[in-house]
From TrEMBL:
Name of the protein: Serine-threonine/tyrosine-protein kinase catalytic domain-containing protein
Transmembrane stretches, start-end: none
Pfam families: PK_Tyr_Ser-Thr
GO molecular function, one term: protein kinase activity
Amino acid sequence: MPHDLDLALKICQGLRPELVEVPKIFDAKNVQKKYEDTEAEYIELMKKCWDSNPDKRPKAEKLYENFRKWFGIIPNTSIPG
């Protein structure tokens, strides 16, 4: 598979994808708030995973902790549509 060396260099120099907000899909404000809070936590964690210094990236235990917490929120909420 060919590699894009220019893209690889840009990533090493800090290029990251643009992050978008979760759309409002729930009428119940408390349910929408749970998703927005989870989104904010996810974005923060994702940015830490992108740190160029491996020592500053979260450990597997921290990832597990977050995913377990979010799993407790997400599957218990049915998405409209």
